[in-house]
Amino acid sequence: MPMIDWDLAVKIFCFGLGSVFGSLAILIGAIYAFGSILKQIEKKSDEEA
Amino acid sequence: MLDMVLTTGFMHLTVGNLIMWFIAFFFIYLAITKHYEPLLLVPIGFGILMVNLPLTYLMEEGEGLLWRFYHYGLEWEIIPPLIFLGLGALTDFGPMIANPKTLILGAGAQFGVYVAFFGALLVGFKIPEACSIGIIGGADGPTTIYTTVHLAPHLLGATAVAAYSYMSLVPIIQPPIMRLLTTEKERKIKMRQLRRVSKREKILFPLVTVLVICLIVPASAPLMAMFMLGNLFNECGVVKRLSDAASNELMNIVTILLGISVGATMSAERFLKPQVIFVFVMGLVAFAFSTAAGILLAKFMNLFTKEKINPLIGSAGVSAVPMAARVSQVMGSKADPKNFLLMHAMGPNVAGVIGTVVAAGVFIALAG
User: What b/e readout covers B32-47, taking b as 16+ CB neighbours within 10 angstroms?
Assistant: First the structure.
């Protein structure tokens, strides 16, 4: 049975799960942000028309 | 006469070869009669048959035909990113953009990846091998293959077949877990119809995503960038030919090469080992925990959100597009025939693909 580097294993777990949740949370923020910007642009162009 | 007989394969057949032939025929049988992932199991089964023919030297390093497919296709990391290009062209991120909070469910369903990772460590696998086994829980074949080629190429046949087998068994594996973790009342929760997503939003999404994900986890760039490029081809509307090529001809060609290459790694001496059984068991554990984590996270989110989420869509966070979303729909409509969850489940379903690629990127960066 090989010696397990538990420090690395825990680091992979913490950084891995953190990256998955972190990146998807940032993506959620980005979707809301560009969604509202696009809405404003569309509203403006509608008003101009 | 004896010399001539010795040049044939018959005299060099081993029991291991015969067992692998049986496995090859079984895969081909499953594909043809049961329709279990036929696009992959037919070439994988045939690849197994080919590599277990004595004296053909098809996997001989530098010479064999199958070795060339494997080496230039998988070891050079060409095939999985091209599959992702095609998947991107076939994916509609609309439901996810319409309800972005379902992205969290795609993240939650990666939990099983880490359960299997630790499980594999505890039964004696090394860290890179445990990463390759854990990623099966993401239920994403090309990502599993990509990760395994990087970290534990000797396990490629087992992890790839486990991933694709469990993906095709989603309608059998998930429903009991879904029933166990939800009440009848929860399964009947109706979700509001999704808003219309504009073309501009759909075009911006792959551009923003590739920036966000590849900056956070650069090791995920080969898969993520190709996934989003394929999606941009599809959504921008000005390169229909490229979108069609990526999602049809190119996808079909690389699927053939992928299947044969995976099958080619399953020679008797590489595949018939006790550790392969552990790979399959841990893969199933990963899959089950991912399903459960997605459902439980949806229930947890319901404690804080005004608009309730049907927890059945949480299980769709295990990629397996679109099969997992279909299972959510079937389970939802069984509880209430007027319940339409398919489009809601597509959100976590495609988010699961992104989540799995991020998890794989971290595995490769830290354990590679």
Answer: eeeebbbebbbbbbbb
Candidate from A9, A20, A31 with C-beta closest to B110: A20
First to last CA, chain A: 73
Q: Do A9 and B127 touch (CB under 8 A)?
A: yes
Is residue A16 less than 8 Å (CB to CB) from chain B?
A: yes
Cβ-contact B190, B310 below 8 angstroms: yes
**Kindly report the CA angle at B114 between B108 and B117, in degrees rounded to 5?**
160
Residue with tokens 């109706």: B190
Secondary structure string (H, E, C) spanning B296-312:
HHHHHHHCCCCCCCCHH
The pLDDT score that the predictor gives to residue B169 is: 86
Residues 6+ apart with CB under 8 A from B244: B89
Grouping H, G, I as helix, E, B as strand and the rest as coil, residue B105 is helix
Q: What percent of chain B has pLDDT over 90?
A: 82
Task: Please give the Cα distance from B270 to B280 (Å, whole number).
Answer: 15
Contact B100 A19 (CB under 8 A): no
Contact B354 A13 (CB under 8 A): no
As a whole number of angstroms, the distance between CA B346 and CA B348 comes to 6
**Of the candidates B106, B208, B217, which has its C-beta nearest A30's C-beta?**
B208
| Stated pTM of the model | 0.92
ipTM of this complex: 0.91
- Please tell me whether the peptide bond between B43 and the residue prior to it is cis, using omega within 30 degrees of 0: no
List b or e across B285-298, with b for residues whose CB sees 16 or more CB atoms inside 10 angstroms. Answer: bbbbbbbbbbbbbb
Q: Which residues, numbered 201 to 220 in chain B, qualify as contacts with chain A under a Cβ-Cβ cut-off of 8 Å?
A: 201, 204-205, 208-209, 212-213, 216-217
Q: Is B185 on the interface with A (CB under 8 A)?
A: no
**C-alpha torsion sign, points B308, B310, B313, B317:** positive
Taking only the tens place, the pLDDT of each residue in B217-273 is 999 999 999 999 999 999 999 999 999 999 999 999 999 999 999 999 999 998 999
